[in-house]
Amino acid sequence: ILWVFNGTNCSGIFSAIATMAAFSSLPAIMAPKEDDIHMMLAANVQQGTMNSDSSMKDYIWRRRNDGVHILNIGKTWEKLMLAARIICAIENPQDVIALSARPYGMRAVLKFAHYTGANSIAGRYTPGTFTNQITKQFREPRLLVVTDPRTDSQAVKESSYVNIPVIALCDSDSPLKYVDVAIPCNNKGKLSIGLIYWLLAR
């Protein structure tokens, strides 16, 4: 397979080639297509941050010379498939809440909710939404999808009180406390966030 890049995405080429080989034994429906890998590299899904959290070390492929961590796209695809199967297991899609306090993730969660029938919380999360029954905005979801476990930490913490499983888009520096399924990806860029939610919705 031949890829042509502008230099910035070259760090993901070898990871992508290994990914395609590793998934050759999967059923065709779950294996990544070449276009999927192309889009993930073009959206810089594999690009992490200069910092890293010890709990994310299994998902980090290597560190570039400029100090930026590169995430393993193979692990990203594995966790995407796992997250998609979990979301599909919820009979009523309205029991799923997609949440983002990060500005780049707001449009993504609104579109995800629109096309999958899920609910969304775009913008500031009101404390007590999952735990305080007397508030008007009280909700009881069966699954929570968050864009950034650090920015959306209040929602993630409350979900642990009421046993709501959490799927989170996690960068190389994201904390994994109370996160059940971490999708390793670049959760700072608008293209990366949009692509991950698009793949989940698909």
> What is the radius of gyration computed over CA atoms, rounded to a whole number of angstroms?
17 Å
Spatial sequence of strands, sheet with the most strands: 4-3-5-6-7
Termini Cα gap? 25 Å
Helicity, as a percent range: 25-40%
Total E-strand runs = 7
Largest sheet: 5 strands, parallel
Q: Quick check: average pLDDT?
A: 83
Shape field: globular
Strand content: 5-15%
The residue ranges in which pLDDT falls below 50 over 5 or more consecutive positions are 1-8
Order of helices and strands: HHEEHEHEEHEEH
Number of helices: 6
**Secondary-structure-derived class:** alpha/beta
Write up what this structure looks like.
- The chain has six helices and seven strands, in the order ααββαβαββαββα.
- With 202 residues, it is of the alpha/beta class.
- The strands form two sheets. It has a five-stranded parallel beta sheet, with helices on both faces. Strands 1-2 form a two-stranded antiparallel sheet.
- The longest helix has 17 residues, at 73-89.
- Residues 1-8 have low confidence and may be disordered.
